[in-house]
Amino acid sequence: MEEMRLQKFLSSAGIASRRKCEELILEGKIKVNGQVVCELGTKIDPLKDEVKYNDKKVELVKEEHTYILLNKPIGYVTTANDQFGRDTVLDLLKKVNRRVVPVGRLDMFTSGALILTDDGDFIYKVTHPKHEITKTYTVTVRGIVEESEVQKLREGVIIDNDYTTKPADARIIKIDREKNQSRMEIRIHEGKNRQVRKMCEAIGRKVLALHRTKIGDVGVKDLKIGTWKYLTPNEVKSILKNN
What is the DSSP letter of 79? Predict the structure, then answer.
């Protein structure tokens, strides 16, 4: 567990509201490792530091979170509510009685792996650029892709006029000369809006189909399109370690 501000720790442990906990700190009623702490900027490690209020040890209440892996179909938007009344990914989770939200986004015309959860800390770690969680995609493009084009993806290409993508793991999976199509696997460690589509456009290729197969090492190979499952604790841990 990462360090957290003392007032957040106290409120998460159920002592009082965040603002009230700030007052308790300023009043000198909180001790950390036996020392009275009166500064609001103080950070503590919940696993290592001992916090006391009224000389009683304060501990976080273990909260059970829900983690869902959905194999998203094309035609669903990745949002909790859509202003245009379109089908959302939450419409596919009829039997889930917890309020979960999507972790990141897949555009309406992209299918594949999407995680939904009620764990804000998990969402932050998976979506924040500094954690670089790997996402794996299969993409079908028009035309016969050359190895030199794939090499450009490996080195980084310019998208959004001035942004150079980080090096990606990319390879050709299949060439279909009869249909004049190529299929590639692309693994990226960042998450710009519609990034894989834009990367393919940068090498002059139109995307015909895009599917996210994995987030970290957790994939949807055994999930039918439109179905979902609960992630196991080990799967959740493996995603967070994949950075």
Answer: S
